[in-house]
Fold this protein.
Amino acid sequence: MNYPNGIKKNNNSSDSIVSELSHKNRGMTLESELNTTNEYYRSIDKAFIYKKPTPIKITKVDYPSRDKAVIKEAFFTIPSTTDYNGLYKGKYIDFEAKETKSKTSFSLNNIHPHQINHLRNIYNHSGIAFLIVRFTTLNETYLLMVNDFLNYIDNNDKKSIPIDFFREKAYLLKDGYMPRIDYLKVIDEIIGG
Amino acid sequence: MNYPNGIKKNNNSSDSIVSELSHKNRGMTLESELNTTNEYYRSIDKAFIYKKPTPIKITKVDYPSRDKAVIKEAFFTIPSTTDYNGLYKGKYIDFEAKETKSKTSFSLNNIHPHQINHLRNIYNHSGIAFLIVRFTTLNETYLLMVNDFLNYIDNNDKKSIPIDFFREKAYLLKDGYMPRIDYLKVIDEIIGG
């Protein structure tokens, strides 16, 4: 089994953990494609959008020598914002990217409530906010603008967004070579760039 | 000795490490004041500016049980961007905050070359970029807009920016109660908000 970013796994006990890990591993694909895309955008001086580092709480650090701090204990913490933000054509860009195995819907458990609040704040203050959601089994990747996303969750009690909502309201993102996922092309269409 | 964020120090060997740590500890003051300020701005629905998580490379993770991942080995990595960014009045905000003990100048060693490149990119693409520099011994905190910063480094071979340059070109930020450091007031003056 391959682990993301050369992470070694020490212990293991249950199938659910394996499933969680392979889920995380699948998650690398969209993430790494978006990272490649953002690197490309920077290389052609088009946009400056970065994935934020994973938020962790550090509780123990070793200093075996100067300039060689080693974190010996830390914990993943819940992110307060989305994973990606940056600048494009003078505008503030903010989005979250998620993958799902489901063929029928995107579970809202994938997005933390404060991430939803954050997206709402960005929308209210004239930032450009959206979700990129990949249905891995279907091999379909969508860009869903935040106003459509908020419209859905504000008017539905469901715990998930059906695939048909994406097919109707969101923009299908096709895989390319350079850039890998040209999501700014969609943003250009929407904001009239 | 107090360590930031409850970090426990395991080993120690030299004074330089102690000095490095206490330097980091001092750094918490400006950082925590800016975090408090940004929380306040969010609470009054004024701006959505966050400090990015510290970038680390995770190399070992334990999974003692489901939902309880513990990072057992990780390393600090050099940030590719600045520490703070976000959205204010529809505009992209980006800045780096630094403290110095020096009474005479701000060493450019405090800012990584790719952070300078990043600030230049943000400036070129109509983002609002600046530095917040605190001279702790003098108890003076300045907001230096990126165009003045770039002007200085592009026209001087010096390895540091003298305090007089800050006193002439930058904006003195006074400590307040709520918000603690009202840097957006200065931004309002500059962008005519």
User: Anything to note?
Assistant: Residues 27-53+79-191 of chain A form a domain with the Trna Endonuclease; Chain: A, domain 1 fold (CATH 3.40.1350.10). Chain A touches chain B through 60 residues (CB under 8 Å). Chain A has one domain: 27-53+79-191.
